[in-house]
Amino acid sequence: MTLSLDIHLKIGGLIFPNMDQCDFTGPLEALARVPNSSFMTIWKDKNPVRDLAGMQLLADTTIDEAPQLDVLLVPGGHGQEALMHDEAVLSFIRKQAAGARYVYSVCTGSLLCGAAGLLHGRRATTHWTAMDVLPLYGATPSDERVVIDGQFVSAGGVTSGIDGSLIVVSLLRGETVAQELQLYMAYDPKPPFQAGSPATAPAPILATVTERARAITEKRLATGRAYQAHLTAL
After folding, report:
1. What is the CATH number of the domain that holds 93?
2. How many domains does the chain have?
3. Catalytic residues
4. Of 83, 92, 109, 173, whose CB is crowded by the most CB atoms within 10 A?
5. Burial class of 193 by CB neighbour count within 10 A (0 to 12, 13 to 18, 19+)
């Protein structure tokens, strides 16, 4: 059920060092244009944050200043791994999730949500290289591009964040508004190659990219196994 336009919505997106900025800036294109809403960029402080490629982003709101949000966007990227035991970040996600209408993760942002304890018993997706990590946080993995499970919406790798953001807009303000934003964004993808998923990529391409991601994938698996072992020991 969509919300009345009279209801002002507070939407916020987390940023952090070594994130993948497209996980954040892609959804931002739609989420920052939701009618009668405000969008906040959130981090521990307001110093510049560099993404994986060196792009600098600035928070306008700290995690201590942030009000209760209607939607929390949690992006991913290699820097997610450094936050998996960061209680300031994890408690912020948990606190926001307790009162938010939706928590929306993109790429490996879902693993951050898992570390915050939000994925137990839920269906979720993530970047294809991290799909095997999701069950370690109690989630049922799905290879769908966008997954909705109650208040938790997750999108797969990087560009799927745009798809998911339009779906979140439709949940908040209806399909008409979402389609208007899609048209404004000229979001009509026609990829030049059929290599955008493991199912369609040529085998040598898949092998190369899998090997390139091996180090971060192994770190994520180790962190997930430690999380599971901790729960089992409780």
Report:
1. 3.40.50.880
2. 1
3. 107
4. 109
5. exposed
